[in-house]
Amino acid sequence: MRLNGRKNARVKMDHRQPVNLMGSDGTWRRSCVLLDVSQTGAKLEVEGTLDVLQAKEFFLVLSSTGLAYRRCELVWIDGTTAGVHFVTAGAKRKAANATAAIAQSK
Q: Which of 27, 72, 76, 91 could tie 83 with a disulfide, CB 3.0–4.6 Å?
């Protein structure tokens, strides 16, 4: 199922799926509910203040033990709802290579 013309299919959760956001340095944590998810991102309903989401990157912790998680970055916020993009090693490499290519061309 594709929502709003997105490239990747999103799965909408039928039940409230509790998850957590955690700072990449482990200094903060926010409870939230997973509303929908795709291969590249997710939509969350965040509890508490959203000021910590201004961090460059953070983790979406999917399990109570912390063994299942995704590294992500904030894409948008609307009230208590937020959209995140999953950061992958391949995407990081592509961005670094593009930055290096731009620097060399100057």
A: 76
CA-to-CA separations, 87 to 4, 20, 94, in angstroms, rounded: 21, 17, 12
Which candidate, 65, 70, 15, places its Cα nearest to that of 42? 70
pLDDT tens, residue by residue, 3-46: 455 567 888 888 889 999 999 999 999 999 999 999 999 999 99
- The alpha carbons of the chain give a radius of gyration, in whole angstroms, of 15
Q: What is the pTM of this model?
A: 0.73
Q: Which amino acid would we find at residue 75?
A: V
Q: Which are the contacts of 34, defined by CB distance < 8 A and separation ≥ 6? A: 13, 17, 18, 19, 42, 43, 44, 62
- Alpha-carbon dihedral 86, 11, 32, 47, rounded to 10 degrees: 110
pLDDT confidence band for 104 (50 / 70 / 90) = low
* Cα–Cα distance, 47 to 26 (Å, whole number): 18
